[in-house]
């Protein structure tokens, strides 16, 4: 498809560990990659803003009528890389916490070690769930490949019986049986494709602002409309003095899709009935399966003088009750502060209760 464009990676914000940039393409024709310049737009947050969610688990897309095996292969490979990165990040954090427990066995107090041990167990549970999730995706993909091979075989049989003389009764029955099998395998592929799509997790998208160099002026108002399959997100904002931006919505949660692309339309609101469409682009989303948040820059117009900055965080599950890499890092930094505080005074001699806790931890 003409919309499948691989984004370029470029560091845009230093606090984000991993970033990439979209090269938006017009929906009517292919466009080459666009070189993006680093920018950090300022977005002032309004009080009371919250994450928007325009869907629920019961509103998932129905199974497709025609399977897309080539596209599913691409999404599966990107998904496996993302899950592997997720496992590596949390495994490193687990090793780091385990090292802290061993080093501070007799140099800290009971509450500090209890907090570390609780974090270790939480990460271990999350790693087990990730491994089970990855194995489930592998099983679904393996079943999908089996149905695809059966469907290809049935398709070849239909072509063979159709090209020959269908005069005999056996030939007609064989052709009908092959056609029935082809239809059945196609339906199975569509069901498995839909089931695999439901295991892609969530994309948490945060609006960071527009960057237009000399294009953005104080008083300008813009409307951004994002379409991702059945999911919609419309937000309006204005440019204030000192290049500050105010938007009526800041965050959105999208369910990843296999065959759909993210469509972004930016409109400049000049007057009541005079709106100018600045750009309408479609962007690839399969490279957003990453363990750490990514800052994405989207070229809105052809010249790239107007860019949209988004921060995308992928959660491999549909629920937000699991710790992410960012939350784990924040917890670790808090523990380090407490560790330095406890080390300001000489360590106390462990009591019998603390000694029993050290033995159970180690």
Outline the secondary-structure elements.
Elements (H helix, E strand, L loop, with lengths): L24 E2 L15 E3 L6 E2 L16 H35 L6 H54 L5 H29 L4 E10 L9 E8 L2 E9 L4 E4 L3 E4 L7 E8 L5 E9 L10 E6 L7 E9 L9 H18 L9 H10 L1
Parallel strand pairs: 2-7, 3-8
Antiparallel strand pairs: 1-10, 4-8, 4-12, 5-6, 5-9, 6-7, 9-10, 11-12
Description of the molecule:
The protein is flat. A hairpin with a 2-residue loop joins strand 5 (221-228) and strand 6 (231-239). The longest helix is centred in the middle third of the chain and has 54 residues, at 110-163. The strands form two sheets. The chain has a seven-stranded mixed β-sheet, with no helix packed on it. The chain contains five helices and twelve strands. With 362 residues, it is of the alpha+beta class. 40% of the residues lie in helices and 20% in strands. Helix 2 (110-163) packs antiparallel against helix 3. Among the domains are: 69-198, no CATH class; 202-319, Sandwich (Immunoglobulin-like), CATH 2.60.40.150.
**Low confidence ranges:** 1-59, 320-362
Distance between the termini: 55 Å
Strand proportion, as a percent range, falls in: 15-25%
Helix fraction by DSSP (H/I, runs of at least 4): 40-55%
**Main beta sheet: strand number and arrangement?**
7 strands, mixed
From the helix content, strand content and strand pairing, which structural class follows? alpha+beta
Radius of gyration: 26 Å
Spatial strand order of the main sheet: 1-10-9-5-6-7-2
Total strands: 12
Number of helices: 5
Strand and helix order:
EEEHHHEEEEEEEEEHH
| Overall outline | flat
In round numbers, the mean pLDDT is 75
């Amino acid at each position: 498809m003409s919309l499948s464009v691989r984004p370029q990676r470029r560091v845009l914000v230093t606090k984000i560990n991993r970033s990439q940039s979209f090269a938006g393409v017009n929906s009517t024709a292919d466009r080459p990659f666009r070189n993006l310049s680093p920018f950090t737009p300022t977005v002032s947050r309004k009080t009371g803003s919250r994450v928007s969610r325009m869907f629920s688990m019961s509103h998932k897309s129905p199974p497709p009528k025609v399977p897309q095996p080539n596209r599913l292969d691409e999404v599966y490979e990107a998904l496996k890389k993302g899950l592997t990165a997720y496992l590596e990040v949390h495994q490193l954090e687990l090793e780091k916490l385990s090292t802290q427990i061993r080093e501070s066995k007799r140099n800290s107090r009971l509450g500090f070690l209890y907090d570390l041990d609780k974090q270790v167990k939480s990460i271990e549970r999350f790693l087990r769930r990730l491994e089970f999730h990855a194995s489930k995706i592998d099983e679904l993909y393996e079943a999908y490949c089996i149905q695809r091979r059966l469907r290809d075989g049935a398709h070849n049989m239909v072509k063979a019986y159709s090209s020959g003389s269908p005069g005999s009764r056996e030939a007609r029955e064989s052709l009908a049986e092959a056609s029935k099998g082809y239809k059945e395998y196609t339906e199975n592929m569509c069901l498995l494709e839909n089931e695999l799509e439901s295991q892609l997790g969530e994309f948490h998208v945060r609006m960071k602002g527009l960057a237009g160099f000399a294009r953005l002026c104080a008083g300008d108002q813009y409307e951004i409309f994002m379409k991702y399959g059945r999911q919609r997100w419309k937000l309006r904002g204005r440019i204030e003095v000192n290049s500050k931006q105010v938007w009526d919505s800041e965050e959105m949660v999208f369910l990843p899709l296999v065959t759909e692309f993210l469509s972004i339309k930016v409109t400049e609101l000049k007057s009541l009935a005079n709106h100018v469409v600045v750009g309408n682009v479609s962007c690839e989303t399969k490279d957003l399966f990453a363990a750490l948040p990514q800052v994405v820059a989207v070229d809105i117009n052809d010249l790239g003088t107007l860019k949209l900055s988004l921060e995308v965080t992928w959660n491999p599950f549909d629920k937000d009750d699991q710790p992410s890499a960012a939350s784990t890092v924040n917890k670790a930094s808090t523990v380090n502060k407490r560790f330095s505080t406890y080390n300001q005074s000489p360590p106390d001699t462990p009591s019998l209760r603390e000694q029993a806790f050290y033995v159970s931890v180690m």
